């Protein structure tokens, strides 16, 4: 099972990236097949680098592991001049803010969307031509944050109950506006500002694309 295939199993990835399985994993670190054990191995390497300190050994970390891998493999970390420590902290924080108590809008779902979008971009006839590095980075980031801090309620519920988010965003896509605003606020914090190396114009393009993509998920 490869992350480049439609049939990728986000549930298996979640299991492969929990603390227990990574400790007992014996998979060859150099295996290029991108199966779930490869990701468990990658997750283990990230753990060993001391960059990730996960709050629960039992919860899997499919989103941060897959996201780091895809950004790394597409050379986007280098292309965007990302600080990898800040990137890992950002991914860790985003994943931790997807509630494990949310039966659908959790980090497994975000990983699933990220992987599906990856396959569409890389195998859907969009490259080369339609997807350049700017678009790819924006699309990956949009998928990563597209349900960030989801409360498990839809917009109709938020609007009809006069939830604070509906009031703040004037009943216009309150949940999606929150995913975006909260994610960009996180990116402004110096310890999470992994995109600080981008030029002003590149950042403006990427920010605009992320906003369009996430608002389109309503
Ligand atoms: Zn979603």
Helical segment count: 12
Structural class: mainly alpha
Rg, nearest Å: 17 Å
Hetero groups: zinc ion
Order of helices and strands: HHHHHHHHHHHH
Which regions are unreliable across 5 or more consecutive residues at pLDDT < 50? 20-32, 48-58
Strand content: under 5%
The H-level CATH homologous superfamily, spelled out, is 3'5'-cyclic nucleotide phosphodiesterase, catalytic domain
Total individual domains: 1
Quaternary structure annotation: single chain
- What is the C-level CATH assignment? Mainly Alpha
Report the sheet with the most strands, covering strand number, pairing sense and barrel closure.
Answer: none
Query: How many E strands?
Result: 0
Helix proportion range = 55-70%
Distance from first to last alpha carbon: 30 Å
Overall 3D geometry? globular
Task: Please name the CATH architecture.
Answer: Orthogonal Bundle
